[in-house]
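Troubleshooting: if your tokenizer reports a length mismatch, compare against these two reference records.
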Amino acid sequence: MTTTIHKNFIAGKWVASKSRKTFANINPARKGEVVGRFQQSTPDDVERAVAAAVAAQAAWKKTPAPKRGEILFRVAELLVKNKEALARDMTCEMGKVLGETRGDVQEAIDMGYYAAGEGRRLMGETVPSELKDKFCMSVRMPVGVVGAITPWNFPIAIPSWKLFPALVAGNTVVLKPASDTPLSSVHFAKLFEKAGLPPGVLNLVTGSGAEVGQPLIDHPQVNLVSFTGSTDTGRVVASHCAGLMKPYSLEMGGKNAIIVMDDADLELALEGVIWGAFGTTGQRCTATSRVIVHKKVMKKFTALLLEKTRALQLGDGLLPKTDVGPLINEAQRSKVASYCEIGRNEGARLLTGGAPEIKGALKQGFFFQPTVFGDVSPKMRIAQEEIFGPVVSLIVCNDLEHAIGLVNDSSFGLSSAIYTRDVNRAFQAIEGLDTGITYINASTIGAEIQLPFGGTKGTGNGHREAGTAALDIFTEWKSVYVDYSGKLQKAQIED
């Protein structure tokens, strides 16, 4: 069987790397299966891609924003047409179940339609002047060339969060996808090409962080870096960009929590915890990692959670009966296993799971048992550090105030949720929880693209993706004053 070799997309052409080397993309459910081979690019390839983006930017900026939006609309239409094929390929390269990869593509579809509409808005403000015969307004201007660095857990959705808003605002882009999931980005770039995006407006370079990511971040003609990934890598991005006086946006980790109050619908809360903790095999920045349960219902809820967790079916994400797919690679599985060992050593009680799953066909992939820890104290490492796997910790609380304090006792602040039938408690939680996203009677995952996405504290650097807020990082504000008085007028100066 011949393995397809995929190329970089630079200046509207599919080209091989200067290195003439490739790397393999492996199916995490069947690690002997190569999904494809991709360019092992070098800083020279980054240089070519940035040069193409620079050359294309002036003409793209001058293209009327509604016309830019029309191209993005066509991309969204192509995503709809190719949704099933894209989802199946994504399951093969990333591992999550087919229903979730369909959702990944749908999120890109939603973002495409949304950003296309923004091409006819891109709103600024008009405000009154303090002087007669003078008009004041603000407009958005593109920042220039955007370096977009994306992770492996949402191989089309997260690139869409960056590409669609950046492009509709008049920027050009160089995209560096995660090396674990480059195929989805290649497919995505081909749809932009088919939709008629001019050459050089979007460029794709695959390869390592050291050989592609770092040169992209440091390139003097890259005007902005938009990064989604680990907190450790985000710190590197931030330090390099700060030294270059270059703006950057960071979307990083989370240690998300669901509060289950004593008046909660426990069956509904159970569904939310199972979905939040084990959807995408726990490999979401919004995954439910902590469940803070009122002491009055802890025993009952724990029993329900263990029964449901033990019934989950692990397997290839393409199989209809699979509930939980594999982890992305062996390094991630080893990390999850190490945290389970840390939890046991800290005194947490392992209630179920806690080890790699190697029975039968599962030994072919990077599978890990869905894991629940009880008797977890708030300062344990498994309650404080992002694990990024199917591991959830149960923490007891005494009342709502105690629960909110436990949620906020984290260096992250991405997503939170509360299950309660009391509307007063719900609004107290909305006000008190220090997270960028809060759900009421729903899980910590499931954000919609028409609202800002992002978090507080160590989750990011204050910027947001999705919604109209996504345009803020990809545009510069310009204030415009039009004086039609025919004479020199001096603001703030009395004659």
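Reference record two:
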Amino acid sequence: MTSLVEVTRDRAVARVVLARPEKRNALCGALIGELTAALSGLAQEDDLRCVVLTGAGTAFSAGADVAELGAVTAETAEAFITQLHGACRAVRDCPVPVIARIDGACLGGALELAASCDLRVASERSTFAMPEVQIGIPSVIEAALLPRLMGWGRASELLLTGRVIDGREALQAGLIERLAEPDALDDAVGGWTEAICAAGPRAIRAQKALMRRWEGGLMDAAIAAGIEAFREAHGSDEPRRMLHEVLASRGGRRPGAKG
């Protein structure tokens, strides 16, 4: 069976690749499970200094596997969204810095993965959006991290309208830390990994752990509330109806969203 997540090591740096390029790395349950397992395994490696998370092909990830999202019911909603939260949590709980290397679309649940990372660099051809409200569901779980990155006003615009922004606007908004030309993306990532690996390994791990503590319990409570909101949203036919309408209006082309 072909792996949907590929992990390689270059000395102290691990590269984790979402490897479903034919589906623009859509976050199906199998991929999410492999990603969570890969990150949890890397977290146990004492010589690890940094992780780079990226996508194969032309997208970081277009977000939802729409077939799976369209099958979610009130009975399965909590398990569905909790699985994606598990992958985001594995990123945040990784004891070393995780860098999101973004090239192409980064939508919905994929943007939540990126927001869970410690640093984000994107190519100039990258696009970002949280389109969930356009298909009848709220943005939940690690979408709670967005106001911390962008400020409440800009995060509200992204979450309440589903508007797509480009890399330059994402940089100006604080959603990403660095913007690069596509062929310079690896150089930008390398600048960070070199600096991290040159620092004290115990100090880096202590710094990340301390920054997680700075978030306090508020973030965990917000994420728990989001899981409940996602479940409640599927108590009506709005998500299924609106997803069907969006797909029909786009001639079957799949929008990115959560999950």
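Descriptive notes for reference record two:
- The chain has one domain: 5-198.
- The mean pLDDT is 94.
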